[in-house]
Each structure stands twice: as structure tokens, then as C-alpha cells.
Design a protein that fits this description.
The chain is α+β, with helices and mostly antiparallel strands and 88 residues long. It is 19% helix and 26% strand. The N and C termini lie far apart (39 Å).
Length: 88
């Protein structure tokens, strides 16, 4: 098993929560995975980014070569987050 370095991360809070994750991989082009595409419906991968973008995040932005991503969660009490919190 190859040695894995600890990923970098940053958490900042305000009216929204932002999380930035970076790894040491060579990255990839995320543009074709940002929306759901029927042609990839039965592929073993490639749907998670679009689903997470639609369901969980207020925004998702890839940086540089695609080995770094920043996601923002909706403010507490706004939209889907409030309904999920209230249902728990």
C-alpha cells in the first residue's frame, strides 16, 4: 500500500461553512462531472459530484488542476439544510 500523505483542509465559518480539500494527486477535469448525464447513468463512477452538488452544497468549485475543491454549505436555517435539521 503506497504511503498516503495527510490531506490539507480548512474550515471557516460565517453565514456559510466552507471546506477546502486538496490532495497530492495529478488531478482531473471535473467539468464533465458537474451535471448528471444520461450517457453515464450505468458507469461505475462519475455521478457523485453532480449528486453532491445538487443535494448538499450551495456551491462547489474546483481549483487548479482538479486536485483541490472548495464546497460551501448553505447557511443554517436556509433551504435544504433547515429541512434536514428539522427532520432529525
Amino acid at each position: 500500500m503506497p504511503h498516503l500523505r495527510q490531506p490539507g483542509g480548512q474550515l471557516s465559518t460565517s453565514s456559510r461553512v466552507a471546506v477546502r480539500v486538496r490532495d497530492q494527486g495529478k488531478g482531473f477535469d471535473p467539468t464533465r462531472f458537474l451535471s448528471l448525464d444520461e450517457s453515464r447513468a450505468f458507469y461505475p463512477n462519475g455521478r457523485g459530484i453532480a449528486l453532491a452538488r445538487q443535494i448538499a452544497f450551495a456551491s462547489i468549485q474546483y481549483v487548479g488542476c482538479g486536485n483541490e475543491v472548495e464546497v460551501r454549505l448553505p447557511a443554517a436555517g436556509a433551504g435544504r439544510q433547515a429541512s434536514l435539521k428539522d427532520a432529525a
